[in-house]
Amino acid sequence: MTALLAYTVFGLVTGGAYAVVAGGLVLTYSTSKVFNVGHGAIGMVMAFLYWELAENRGLPQWLALLIVVGGCAPLFGLLVERFVMRRLAGAPVGITLVAGVGVLVGLIGAAQAIWPPQARPVRPFLDQYGIHIGQSFVSGHDLVTLLCAVLVAGGLYVLLNRTRTGLAMRACVDAPELAALYGTRPDRLSALSWAIGSALAALGGILLTPVVQLDYVTMTLLVITAYTAALVGRLRSLPWTFVGALGLGLVQSYAVAYLPSSPFWIAFRAAIPALLLFVVLLAMPQSPLRIGGVRGSRGVAVPSGLATGVGAAIFLGVVLALALLVDGVVAGQLALGLVFGIVLLSMVLLTGYGGVVSLGQFTFVGVGAVTVARLGSSSPLALLAGAAVAAAIGALIALTVLRVSGLYLALATLGFAQLMDKLVLQSPIAFGVRGSLQVPKLVDSPAGQLLLAAGVFAVVGAGVLAVRRGRLGRRMIAVKDSSAACATLGVNVRWIRVWVFSLSAAIAGLAGGLFAQLRETVAASDFQLFNNLPLLLFAVIAGVTSVSGAALGGLLLMLLPVLQSGFPAFAGAAVVLLGVAAAGLARDPNGLVSWFFRAWSWRRA
């Protein structure tokens, strides 16, 4: 009983910190209908800023907390709302998600540039105080965390349900023009909600810092637990969000206490937030079909079959010339860029044509790579086997989450990516005890690898364009524009989603097999969860609706680690620019490639 009480207290304290973060997430969503994927990154940056003031500069803890939570965090929330989120009012879920991911990646880059990696311990609050409950000791920091959770939950409930400002916030979400006629100012109310939400993200990050320590990615992705708590409250009920956060904290604490200490169960403990996220999504009511006007965006022109063949021949001719002219190192880098381009082709099919935002597409690359590595064969059939396994997993995921769509579907892909990351790709199941596998090459010379990658890219790109011109492609575009109209006409909307998921996963798995054979050695670190986010950003920046955008995005994605290794001082700045560019281009899914197409059309005119 003593151990149970101790772990219960620990779980409630952790859940209280989750409740603070989830409360800010619910506030911003319930008042702006924008789901802030970068919420955890805001808390991470503000926790680093708190360390700078309290530990590095020697300010009193209470003063550093007041400056960060009461000043810097709200100000940053105002800036994000004014220059990023306000432009996205009324935009589809995919656009707001991409902008949020851009903010997340940009903040990680900024933190890395300002605070280089090193150990940064943070003192708990009131570490000299505490109370005994039975034989369990509750520290002063634990009491502060619980008190903050209760005050935040009560304060937000009163704000949204018992004050004129809170009621006006909710009214502006439903009908901003009508609310403005009654004297409210929707822009100011939206800015206020983002300021409060950022302050709560900062407070939650600071409360969690003594427990998890300061780490760029770990603290940012801790917000997945807050996502789960927010979904328990359906992104609008603060009491249920509070209950969900405390429940998650207790489940994680009891898992540490009572599950075995074998490697599998250690990985399972880390995957509990993602597993619970899946459970909550599956328990939610079926998503209604979206009704209203067509909201699709105009994509780039789809070439005919003849134009596709001519373009593929020109592309292969250029690659052949490059393979003869460049040295082996450059040829290998170009081949890797084209492999990344094949991965982005899967996103062209899924996101560009199907309208589904995936936050876990790089996981299918890992599945294909592991399959090819485990087969240990240099035959092309191994690549097809990797694609088939990835396709089967993609179809299984689509069947599992048929009930949800839009934002919930995107969060489901993120939960799937974390489950695969913790239970499979980062465990001995995939890469063995050493954490890496040797893969025999299909082609030995770098020039041959470049030609192989170019050939596969050309074939897959032509196939993606053929799907777009065919019956399935037309239905995908129609479902993307208006799922309700398609259902009215008898189109099976959900089975189309299964087909799209399966095909896109197969393409990503094929790219994963090529990636493994190019690298010769693949490791668990190649397929970490965070790698999914830059993939989405490069797809949007280059153009997620065209094969040309996939090629450009793959080359840019290949250049990022080259830039980081060659110019380490500017690595963080490069990631910041990546996030800013993605947030700025979120409304234009055609990306940079569309600028070239428009310039070419203007010259022809």
TrEMBL record:
Keywords attached to this entry: Amino-acid transport, Cell membrane, Membrane, Transmembrane, Transmembrane helix, Transport
Protein name as it appears in the record: Branched-chain amino acid transport system permease protein
Main location: membrane
Membrane-traversing stretches: 6-27, 34-53, 59-80, 92-115, 143-160, 191-210, 216-233, 240-259, 265-284, 305-325, 331-350, 381-402, 447-467, 498-516, 536-560, 567-586
Pfam families: BPD_transp_2
Membrane topology: Multi-pass membrane protein
Annotated source species: Lentzea flava
CDD domains: TM_PBP1_LivH_like (cd06582), TM_PBP1_LivM_like (cd06581)
Compartments it resides in: Cell membrane
